Fold this protein.
Amino acid sequence: MTGNQSGQSPRLLDQMRAVLRRHHYALRTERTYCDWVRRFVKFHEMKSRADLADGTRKIEDFLTDLAVTGQVAPSTQNQALNALIFLYERVLEQPLEGRIDAVRARRAPRVPEVLTPEEARAQPAGRGESGLEGEDGGGRKWHPRRLKVGRMKRSAGFQPASDGLATLSDREPVFNQS
């Protein structure tokens, strides 16, 4: 284990790296976890290992600040939580008491952008008659008639029939009926 020659315990991040490597964590995970620990120590202005006491409360405060002030995504907050749990339970070997009740980050709502009929007509004509055809990145072509019609954003006076859900009578036939 990496440590000082004078018999002192190794620095916190050096000890963290050694335990992560002993457990065969990926190098990217090692860097990410060490970065979260660095931010945690800086947030609480810790100067010594004694400042790491009362971990549950300090983790809650840090994660709450991430969610409220930092407005991070839930996955980012979970990553920070996992890094700090690893620090306390595997590196410091101090089990955390109770539950960590931090304010949880909220997932941003996904609002689909839907073109109004006027905007669709204003699109430049490309391939096909509507100009809305495209490719999905894998070389496969798609056409607007094949897109799933779901809830639509009501803007510019556009009111979709039947609460934004298409019915069979609203669709054009995909192939010729002869």
The domain at 12-91 is CATH 1.10.150.130 (DNA polymerase; domain 1).
